[in-house]
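BUG: 3D viewer hangs when loading the predicted structure for this chain

Environment: internal workstation, default settings.
Expected: structure renders.
Actual: progress bar stalls at 90%.

Input used:
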Amino acid sequence: MSFSEADVQGALKNLIDQNTRKDFASGKSLKNIKINGNDISLDIMLGYPAKSVWDEIRAIIEAHLKAALPGVGNVSVNVTSKVVSHAVQHGAKLVDGVKNIIAVASGKGGVGKSTTAVNIALALAAEGARVGMLDADIYGPSQPTMLGISGQPTTDGGNFMIPMANHGLQAMSIGFLIGSGDTPMIWRGPMVTQALDQLLRQTRWDDLDYLIVDLPPGTGDIQLSLAQQVPVTGAVIVTTPQDIALLDARKGLKMFEKVGIKIIGIVENMSTHICSKCGHEEHIFGSGGGEKMCADYSTEFLGNLPLDICIREQTDSGKPTVVADPDGNIAKTYKQIARRIAVKVGEMAQSHSAVFPKVVVQNT
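Structure tokens produced before the viewer hung:
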């Protein structure tokens, strides 16, 4: 029995990618279908990093084609990922060496925004992406401690700093530059905004697929200025279930909407507490708040995370959960959230700015 490309495409229209929630044929991932007698080979190029599930996707597609096309011989599927640049808010100047910037924000402090940001960054890196972390919380930089990085960055001999690195991430923070960890930043808003711009644009980022920006909490003048100046592909809002946190999270979401930044989705942190002694699970901060907020604003609920002492202990030690316990249930949740963020970014409009040459006019 012979097969055609149309037969293969038709078969894959009935197979859903659990990450994108779309079939493999309708998107742009299906490529290079080749038929040799009864043997079939094809490439699947995912628009999001998913190294941990490549083998699973390969096995699912091969099994599906063998079941859908009776008489098929050998089926060979090659799965890879490719991350491209996507559009940002109008008027924002792009950053060299960075394809996509994802802002992680919260309406108020104390909801675990920085912990969520660093674990999302590490999860994307674990899936095969090139990832950077920019600690934009000038008043309270925490990423040096969370990433277990000490010392100061070097320069490239010019005006650019070389990012610090650990756990496979490139990182930059004001915390690397101010000396001791208890040194306060007694700066007014314009100085903070200028400092962030320098950290972002005077760092020699090395071919990043994603730069995760850990924004300060709140929605004041500083946050608005940062949102307008940083070319953000999309924003993730972190909240906890209690009403006061959700109220502030809604303000943060509306701030991004006003400056033309797309909302990727919402992460609910500290959703439940599981007693380490008896295993009893309790919604001590309430339940369902994050999902209701998503329904109210037509955005996606990316996932929820427990209030767990291990998350705090691992992050404080400089080895966040995704690297400290990569196969644990909490790390798997972070990876699921990160993969969904990458999928959502992959579905956004692409940026074609790199296609156009730079025009320089000089007097001769």
